[in-house]
Write a structure and sequence with these properties.
single chain, alpha+beta, Umud Fragment, subunit A, 3 domains, 8-stranded mixed beta sheet, 10 helices, 8 strands
Amino acid sequence: MSAAERYKPTAAICRSIRSHRERLGIGQKELARRVGVQPNAVSNWETGFSKPNTDLFIPICEALGITLYELFDITDPMLRYSEREKLLLEKYRSLSEGHKYAVDKLVTSLCYVESADKCPDITELTYFSRSLAAGIGDPTDFEDEGEPMYLYSSELVDSADCVFSVNGDSMEPEFSDGDMVLVQRFPDCTELSEGEIGAFIVGNETYVKEYRRDGLHSLNAKYKPMKFGDEERVFFIGRVVGVLDPDDIASDDDVKRYYSLRGQT
């Protein structure tokens, strides 16, 4: 087998290195210096006597200012056009500058619509991370205004108004310490039926409990029911509609894109 036959698969690389080196107007020694190899290495590549090691492909491309596609003399698939695309390009080039501008605006608008369709819907709820105190005039108003929490929209998320954190193990196994629960606030929700889970304020503490006629119950049997006298004040915040899945918390990038597409900051 001749040397030419042995290195036939690398012929394209050999031609490419020499062509792009000459295009830059640099010698073999200069290219070798940029790549970090001996001068005779470049000569061997260009004559097809040897081929570059694969770990040198990137340095060669950087030294010549080309892509890997250009190094291997392969057409970049991103630059391939279908017959329909070629026809559209030819038609576009035949337009006046004014009509080209109109096409550009139309394409931009269509791309905007495509982006909006692909952007997930976001729902903004209020997250209360601390214990709450009921308002003096209206117990459904809180001294803590909470902070916004952005979630991916779903039937469950959209049915809620706010999010609370569960503290402790009194509601296990259904609700664990640190879980975030979705709450539909009163008066948007109806009053609780016996056996339903709700969020309540007792004093300056917030509780997630099961409502029963004799008081507020924990799901964990080791905790006694919370029972209240006529003088004690218990405020109903709202119905617990579910536990928030951490994956439902929207990423910062999605939130920015969602509001940007709607012209909001």
